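Structure tokens please, single chain.
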Amino acid sequence: MKRVYLYKMFERFWHWAQMLLISGLLITGFEIHSTYELIGYDTAVKWHNYSAWGFIVLIVFAIFWHFSTNAWKNYIPTAENFKAQIEFYITGIFRNAPHPTKKRVLSKLNPLQRLIYLFLKAIVIPIMVVSGLLYFYFHYPSQAIEVSTLKPIAIVHTFGAFMLVVFLIAHIYLITTGNTIFSNLKAMITGWEEMDDEDAKEIVEEAIDEVGKNITQGHYSPSTKKKEVKDIIVEALEDIEDKVQKEELKGQKAITKKKKNKK
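Here you go.
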């Protein structure tokens, strides 16, 4: 196994900040709906509003990041391996079948994930934001938005919240389906994904090809990406060196053990 730098700093920050803000919105939102009582209605409303504005600011930065890095292409739907991916989640995952879609630097999501994330980001979250703003500005601060009733807005907003709950439950389960239970979680914390030697080699080659193509097309200056490519190659070589050293150490221990047994 080798480690590949798959998730960059902002991507990880965005993921965890989004997780914290959405969790905060769900916890306070359901308390506002009197589902339970943890911190009190007034405090829940205050922190729900704080979290909502924080989430909107994060969305603005995320949109800029997605379009400036071409990360939005990860969400383009594809039919390739779509059926195989569904079969993998239904039965293959329980038979330790190989994953039909390999992760790549420029294509981290499988076909099913692409559809789900596109639906979430292009439909569910915008609906939640718009309905939330209608909630916030209804008769506030001074008759900013006038609607006859909040009932349809409340229904849509609550339905979106339940959609997010379903997504979170599925997401938490699916992060345990990596090489180990915690490998996907660790990757999103450190940025480094553990992969088979062949997959790691393909990712390094893909990254180098993409950087070369972008430099040729004038999208990036050579100095902009030089260090990034160098870091990828150096890390891959260091992993190979570590692997060789571990094998040598293992061999030395085996020889020492045999000598002791002979004595």
